């Protein structure tokens, strides 16, 4: 099964570090975040990757050219200013069956074979992996007189799940693919007609949207122990 990785955006939220690098190429523990993403897929049995590139794609070519990482990496120029939906659309000529699409800056210990099996079981064209939503802020419970009754730092927001990527799509999804943005234009119509499901994962997930996210995770890695996105699985247990 092929894996399309979105890695062509300008990464404005990680400026100025993305002036010279695509955001997924920011170093995490001395290795680009994108490479951690790819290696996590490889560990679970996936070997065929399509990088939907755009902004500073020369950095991707320089990094992967002549490098053997144990998998086939195909870099596609999907357009300097293309949005997420357009990037996947521009890779469709390389897709010949169900495939996974994900973001180049998100790491998770989600068991990918379970996501694929779930997708094959429901028959819809789209499966999105979702993870619990946590507040970005400390949350107060306040009495009418202003007294603080309770304070919780970045609590779990019950019954809300967020898009973690790791999406399984059937090629039939391209039949009525309309619009430029995956999240605003492509996914909502599928949901409206009951053609999308979610695989809920309550394990580790981290999106490296800002440079501070990389710095914080670097500190975690420096403290020792295995990276938190590594699931306790063996490659031979995964079928891609």
UniProtKB/TrEMBL annotation:
Boundaries of every Nucleotidyl transferase domain copy: 2-190
Alphabetized GO MF terms: glucose-1-phosphate cytidylyltransferase activity
Record SUPFAM superfamilies: Nucleotide-diphospho-sugar transferases
Pfam families the UniProt entry points to: NTP_transferase (PF00483)
InterPro entries according to UniProt: G1P_cyt_trans-like, NTP_transferase_dom, Nucleotide-diphossugar_trans
Keywords: Transferase
PANTHER family with a match to the protein in the record: GLUCOSE-1-PHOSPHATE CYTIDYLYLTRANSFERASE (PTHR47183:SF1), GLUCOSE-1-PHOSPHATE CYTIDYLYLTRANSFERASE-RELATED (PTHR47183)
Protein name, per record: NTP transferase domain-containing protein
Biological classification of the source: Bacteria, Pseudomonadati, Pseudomonadota, Alphaproteobacteria, Sphingomonadales
């Amino acid at each position: 099964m092929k894996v399309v990785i979105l890695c062509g955006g300008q990464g404005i939220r990680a400026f100025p570090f993305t002036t010279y690098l695509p955001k997924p190429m920011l170093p995490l523990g001395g290795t680009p975040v994108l490479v951690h993403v790819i290696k996590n897929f490889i560990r679970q049995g996936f070997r065929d990757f399509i990088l939907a590139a755009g902004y500073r794609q020369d950095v991707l070519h320089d990094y992967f050219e002549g490098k053997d990482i144990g998998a086939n990496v195909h870099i596609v120029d999907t357009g300097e200013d293309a949005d997420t939906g357009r990037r996947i659309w521009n890779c469709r000529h390389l897709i010949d069956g169900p495939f996974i699409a994900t973001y180049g800056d998100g790491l998770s210990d989600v068991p990918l074979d379970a996501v694929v099996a779930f997708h094959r079981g429901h028959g819809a064209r789209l499966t999105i992996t979702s993870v619990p939503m946590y507040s970005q802020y400390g949350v107060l419970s306040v009495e009418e007189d202003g007294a603080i009754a309770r304070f919780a730092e970045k609590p779990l927001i019950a019954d809300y799940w967020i898009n973690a990527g790791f999406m399984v799509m059937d090629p039939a999804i391209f039949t009525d693919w309309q619009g430029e943005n995956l999240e605003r234009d492509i996914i909502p119509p599928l949901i409206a007609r009951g053609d999308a499901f979610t695989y809920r994962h309550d394990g580790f997930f981290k999106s490296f949207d800002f440079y501070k996210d990389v710095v914080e995770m670097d500190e975690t890695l420096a403290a020792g122990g295995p990276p938190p996105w590594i699931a306790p699985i063996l490659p031979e247990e995964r079928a891609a």
